[in-house]
Amino acid sequence: MTEVNCMTATNLATGEQATFSHQDPRMAFSYIYAQATNQLTHWACMSDGAKLDFIADRVRIGERSWGFGDWAIPFFDENTQKGIYLETGGQKCPRCQSMQIEGGKVEIGSKKATQKVWCNDCDATWTDYHTMSNVEIG
Known about the structure:
Elements: E1 7-11, E2 17-20, H1 25-36, H2 40-44, H3 48-55, E3 60-61, E4 65-68, E5 71-74, H4 78-87, E6 101-108, E7 112-119, E8 125-131
Antiparallel strand pairs: 1-2, 1-5, 3-4, 4-5, 6-7, 7-8
């Protein structure tokens, strides 16, 4: 099982780093923002959804990382992304871990089926490949 225990945010201007024990960069940035604006007490009382709303319009999604002001959190490497996606049965975006994903129609070929999939939160796109692993004759 691929396991991602933490993520590290880096301040690109100062080199300062902060490590977080979860997988959602938006939560990390909401903490950094609360800390910078002396609102940690208020932040601690917020629900996770409210914490995400607190920071949502300030987070940027680049080609290789999430960004917030001078802070950046790199996306997981490709092998980790694939591992998490496959282990969750294709339920979470391999880039941002959002469950807001959708897929197009399944194209069936002679030995495999493919499906274009995208994330509505970070705009990542990828292709799922399905192969026949069993048959049940009834």
